[in-house]
Write a structure and sequence with these properties.
Layout (H helix, E strand, L loop, with lengths): L1 E7 L3 E4 L2 E5 L2 E5 L4 E9 L2 E4 L2 E5 L2 E5 L14 E5 L5 E4 L2 E5 L3 E5 L2 E2 L11 E5 L9 E4 L2 E5 L4 E5 L2 E2 L3 E5 L6 E4 L2 E5 L2 E5 L3
Parallel strand pairs: 1-5, 2-6, 3-7, 4-8, 5-9, 6-10, 7-11, 8-12, 9-14, 10-15, 11-16, 12-17, 13-18, 14-19, 15-20, 16-21, 17-22
Length: about 190
Amino acid sequence: LLSSTKTSAFTGVVGGIVGTVRGGSVTLKDSTSYYKISAKDVTDSVIGGMIGSVEASELLTADATKVLLASDSNASVMIEDNGQGNNILGGVIGQVSGGAEVGIDGIETGDVNAEDDIYAITMETDYTGGLNGDRIAGGIIGKVKGPEVVVEMADVTNRLSILADDNRSRSGYFPGGLTGYSEHAILQLHDTY
C-alpha cells in the first residue's frame, strides 16, 4: 500500500492501511505500507503507519513488513502542531487502548539504506505560546494505555529515527524507539531492538 496524506487543521485518526480498529479481530500478514504523511496545525491527532488506533480489539501482525522511506528534503511523517491537544505518532500503530490485545511479530520498520541524519518521524511545534498537551512518538507504537491492554512484540526491528523539536525547549515530548509512552499496560518484548 502506498499512502500519501497532506492535511491541515487536522483532528482525528489516520492509518496507512486502517484508520481505527474497534472491536473484533484483525490479522495483517505479509503487509507492506509505504507512506508519506504531512500534517500542519494539528490538534489531538493519532497517526500510525499501518493502523491509526486499536481499541478493544485483537490484532495480530504476522510476518508483516513495514518500510518507511525518508527523503533528503522531508520526513516521511511530519507533524507541525499548533501547541494544543495531544498528538501521537507510531511507525506501525499510533495508539493502543481500551483493553486491546496486540501481537506484533516479524515487523521491520525503516529503510536500512536511509542516511543517518534523515529523520523518518518529525514532530515540530513552532507555536510560541504555552504548550497544552503531549507530543508522543514511537518507532513501533506511539502510545499504549490501559490496565487491560496487552502488547507483545517478537522479532521486531525499528530503524525509524525520531526528531521531536520545540523551538522553546518546552516539556511534554515523549519519543521512544519502540514505544513513546506506556501507562498501566503490559508490554512483552522478545528479540526486539
